[in-house]
Design brief:
By secondary structure, this protein is α/β, with parallel strands linked by helices. It has a domain at about 85-110 and about 210-390: Rossmann fold. It has 16 helices and 13 strands. It has helices at about 40, 45-50, 85-95, 115-125, 140-145, 165-170, 185-200, 210-215, 215-225, 240-255, 275-280, 305-315, 325-340, 345-360, 380-390, 400-410, and strands at about 5-10, 15, 30-35, 85, 95-100, 130-135, 155-160, 175-180, 200, 235, 265-270, 320-325, 370-375.
Length: about 425
């Protein structure tokens, strides 16, 4: 691929050709990122070519993705999710230019579909017969969806705490599911060991550099949907760190191509006991393990596997990190639903909870254009949503019973 110049280590800066390594730096073990010939790509990817392109998926950005053949991509439409102007929600929080990017509208109701689409396309180009991943559910479900109709075996490792709706998706799409009696980090390590033992292609977040390439496409869409401008701030929940580093890479790519002039500040939101990246940013820069315990399973991580890239994105963008409690995460679910008609899972609602906290502390101010990325749909974790809203009323099928309920609960006046 002429457009791809190779891979570069985020930690030590060493460069590799694509054929030299699949996953991590051979020198220091650091994570890699794909590098491009931007001068070449500038000749192909412009305002005019994008405006004339009828494709409405991540593959409209094929010229800045590390995939050669559009005909070889998985047969599932991913991306081009809606960006809502959230006037009512913005008024309640004190931000007049608030936008909500609803990536829960992807095929498996998750942002992770973007990463899986690109990694599966890469696996197809490499003619890999087996692909594997470790996940709390979303990344695994997206991978299983992408490979469902393909002649490619999919083996998934999930912690036994993974929500049932997410596990159901895996089984429906035909993946071989291995539940691990341990944490996400345990499942991740086992998956890496298995891929080395059996030669399976590994899609793991924060391990396979192609995942970040899929996730950056969300940044491209945000810029297009805001008439070729980046927001002032982009708020996103953070677990492993791969999404925020991917978003930042997308904004950087568009800036290097001359498509946008300014870059946003990135804001990382982490659960208070799963905040290793926040600690590193505000401390000595080193990623140290935390408990990872939180109701938001998709950002429940002890050791962020792409933590260094996330810290780098925050520093380069002049951004910051916020931590939120489980109570704040759960209360944000109905606030989003009633303020902008978006049903978010806990890991996604955490971003809005973080926005509220950043506004209250003065780190985000009215007059700024702010985009909150919702990374997963609430149907992925119904039990958590029910904790936030309580139980429905139950009455006999009689009008008199209804009248009593209306009067007792003052329903009409609400």
């Amino acid at each position: 691929m002429r457009k791809v110049t190779g891979l570069q280590c985020i930690r030590c800066g060493k460069e590799y050709k694509l054929k030299e390594t699949k996953y991590t730096c051979l020198s220091c073990g650091g994570n890699l990122q794909v590098t491009y010939d931007y001068n070449l790509i500038k000749k192909r990817l412009t305002y005019k070519t994008l405006d004339a392109n009828p494709e409405r998926s991540i593959w409209r950005y094929l010229d800045i993705l590390p995939i050669e053949d559009a005909d070889a991509v998985p047969p599932v439409q991913v991306g081009w999710t809606p960006l809502y102007r959230a006037e009512k929600l913005g008024e309640s929080v004190g931000i007049s230019n608030l936008y909500i990017k609803d990536d829960g509208r992807n095929p498996t109701c998750s942002f992770k579909d973007r990463a899986s689409a690109v990694t599966v396309a890469r696996a197809l180009e490499l003619e890999e017969p087996v692909i594997t991943a470790a996940s709390t559910g979303n990344a695994a479900a997206s991978l299983a969806c992408q490979t469902g109709s393909l002649d490619m075996k999919t083996i998934i490792f999930v912690p036994k705490s993974a929500p049932a709706p997410k596990v159901a998706q895996l089984l429906v799409f035909g993946a071989h599911v291995v539940m691990v009696d341990g944490t996400y980090d345990d499942a991740f390590d086992l998956c890496v060991s298995a891929s080395k033992e059996y030669g399976w292609y590994n899609r793991n977040t924060g391990y396979n550099p192609f995942t970040r390439e899929g996730k950056k496409t969300c940044a491209f869409e945000i810029c297009e949907q805001l008439d070729w401008e980046a927001p002032d701030k982009v708020v996103v929940s953070v677990g492993d760190g791969n999404i925020i580093s991917g978003l930042w890479k997308g904004f950087m790519d568009f800036n290097r191509l001359g498509i946008i002039e300014k870059l946003p500040q990135m804001v990382a939101v982490q659960a208070e006991h799963s905040n290793a990246i926040k600690n590193a940013l505000e401390g000595d820069g080193e990623i140290k393990p935390v408990s990872g315990q939180t109701v938001a399973d998709s950002i429940s991580v002890s050791i962020p596997r792409d933590g260094m890239a996330a810290v780098q994105a925050l520093k380069e963008s002049g951004g910051f990190a916020v931590s939120v409690t489980d109570a704040e995460i759960l209360s944000a679910i109905p606030e989003l639903a009633r303020g902008v008609n978006v049903f978010a899972e806990p890991a996604a609602s955490a971003a809005y909870a973080g926005l509220k906290k950043a506004v209250a502390s003065g780190q985000i101010k009215d007059g700024e254009t702010v985009c909150v990325v919702i990374t997963g749909n609430g149907l992925k974790d119904i039990n958590s949503a029910m904790k936030a809203v309580g139980k429905p009323y139950l009455i006999k099928p009689r009008l008199e019973d209804l009248k009593q309920l209306v009067a007792r609960e003052n329903i009409i006046a609400r």
